[in-house]
Design brief:
Rossmann fold, globular, about 130 residues, 5-stranded parallel sheet
């Protein structure tokens, strides 16, 4: 499975949380893992804010090395703003979901791996595939 990951799913791989088993399962099913480049900033910040130990910091670096990084051009900013006007997501979540939507046009069958309820709800409203 080709999958687009958001930060909630990556942090569930690093820290023991309610969705850790699901994140681990998703990781075993992924052929190519995509992410918006901003995930690197968010995931590392999440590890730092949670006072991650050396093992968790190493796990974060390892997880981040596994991604095929994607971005959208600055010329798409207005499209992103319009997209988020429909969904009202937090800024970074809007960026992740917009990037996923754009990439899903080029990668058939691309699934979103996320544990963020608002993002999942917006993805489903858009008719996008969400890993379950």
């Amino acid at each position: 499975m080709n999958a687009f990951w958001d930060t909630s799913a990556v942090l569930a791989l690093i820290f023991q949380e309610p969705h850790t088993a699901q994140a681990q399962k998703a990781a075993t099913e992924v052929t190519v893992a995509y992410a918006w480049w901003w995930l690197e900033v968010e995931a590392w910040s999440g590890v730092v804010r949670r006072n991650g130990n050396n093992e968790q910091r190493a796990a974060c670096r390892q997880a981040l090395n596994a991604f095929a990084w994607v971005n959208f051009p600055r010329s798409k900013t207005q499209d992103l703003l319009g997209f988020n006007a429909k969904h009202g997501l937090r800024a970074a979540d809007a960026g992740h979901l917009f990037c996923f939507k754009e990439l899903s046009h080029a990668v058939p069958g691309l699934n979103l791996v996320s544990f963020d309820r608002e993002m999942i709800k917006a993805a489903k409203r858009e008719g996008l595939l969400v890993w379950d």
